[in-house]
Amino acid sequence: MVSSIITAIPNVISSKKSIAHILGRFKINRWLYSIYSKYQQSFLGYSKNINYENKTFFKDIHIDFALKSLKKEAVFIGLKLPKEIVTEIQGFSKNTLLAQENAKAHFYYSDVKNGYLPDGRVIVQGIAIEPLKCDAIQQIINDPVLRVIIEKYLGYSPKKIRALLRWSFVLELPDEARMKLSQGNLYHYDIGEFNSVYANFYLSDTDRYSGAHTMIKGSHNCKNFRMLFNSAIQPKDYLIKYYGQHNEILIEGEEGLGFIQDPYCYHRAIPPIKEERLLLQIQFS
Ligand SMILES: [Fe+2]
User: Fold this and answer.
1) Which residue range forms the structural domain that includes residue 131?
2) How many Å lie between the centroid of ligand 1 and the Cα of residue 113?
3) How far is the CA of 189 from the centre of ligand 1 (A)?
4) What distance in Å separates the CA atoms of residue 93 and residue 278, rounded to the nearest whole number?
5) Which of 122-126, 180-184, 219-223, 224-228 is the least confident region?
6) How far is the CA of 230 from the centre of ligand 1 (A)?
7) For the chain, how many structural domains are there in total?
8) pLDDT at 89 over 60
9) Which residue among 96, 105, 151, 261 has the highest number of C-beta atoms inside a 10 angstrom radius?
10) How far does residue 179's CA lie from ligand 1's centre (Å)?
11) Residue 82: CATH number of its domain
C-alpha cells in the first residue's frame, strides 16, 4: 500500500492540475480551507449580496435537518421548486444557445434530433452558455434558505458560484465516450475546488430511464488510499464492495425536485435511455 502511494504522488503532481485539484481530495484540507475562509471573510469583511428577508421557495425546509443529512450522508433531498419557476427555466432552455462541453458546437435545443445535429455531430448534452440570463435561475441562486444551508455547510460565504443548465439527450454511446464529454455517467467524485457543495434541480420528470442521479451515501467522509491517490473515477463494483450496497441510492423525482449534494461523494448520472433530462446544477465553492 505504501509503495502504491509513493508511486501515485508523482503521478498526481505531474498531472499539472491546480493545487486545489490535489488538496481538495482530502477531507482535512477541505476543513482547513473552510476555517481559513471563514476567518478571512470575517477579518476582511465580505459582501454577501443576499437579502435574507427575500421570499424563499423553500420555506418548509428544516435547515438543521438538511445540514445533518448533508454532513452524514452527503445529500439532502427534499427541495421543491414552484411550477412557474420550472416552466420559466424550461422555456429559457429551449430558446437559448447551448454548447457541448469540450466541443465548439453551439446549437439550440430544437437543432438536436435523436442525439445528433443536422451536420452529423453527436450531441449527448447541451449546456446553456449564459444561464444567468434566466431570471428564475438568479432567484434560485439568491434564495435565502438555500444560501443559509450552503453557507452553514461550507462554513463561509461561497466565493464562486457557477450555474449549469444542462440537457441530456437520449443516445446510444459507450460510457467512456460519455465521460470524455463530461457527462459524469461513471462513478466519480468532483475535484478542482478546495471545497464545494451543489444544489441540483430536476426540471423534467426524472427516473432511472431518464438520467436520474445515483450516489453512495457517506462516501464524502471516507475514502481509502486507492480512491484518494488515483483516478477520481472508480468502478461501481469496487465501490459497492467497499461501502456496501445499502449505501447506494437512486434519486428519482418529478420536475422541480431539488437535492443538495456534497460532490466529494461518489456519484453518477445514469445516461437517459427513454426520455431526455433537463437539470439545473448550481455549484457553490
Ligand atoms: Fe460530478
Assistant:
1) 2-284
2) 26
3) 6
4) 8
5) 180-184
6) 16
7) 1
8) yes
9) 261
10) 10
11) 2.60.120.620
175 CA → ligand 1 middle, Å: 14
Distance CA 107, CA 127 (A): 10
* Cα 262 to ligand 1 centre (Å): 10
pLDDT at 182: 65
Q: State in Å: Cα 154 to ligand 1 middle.
A: 18
CA of 5 to the centre of ligand 1 (A): 24
Q: How far is the CA of 216 from the centre of ligand 1 (A)?
A: 12
Kindly give the distance from the C-alpha atom of residue 53 to the centroid of ligand 1, in angstroms, as a whole number: 32
φ, ψ (nearest 5 deg) of residue 106: -110, 135
Q: By mean pLDDT, which of 61-70, 226-235, 273-282 is the weakest?
A: 226-235
Is residue 190's pLDDT more than 60?
A: yes
Question: Would the pTM of this model clear 0.85, i.e. be above it?
Answer: yes
Report how far ligand 1's centroid is from the alpha carbon of 269 (Å): 8
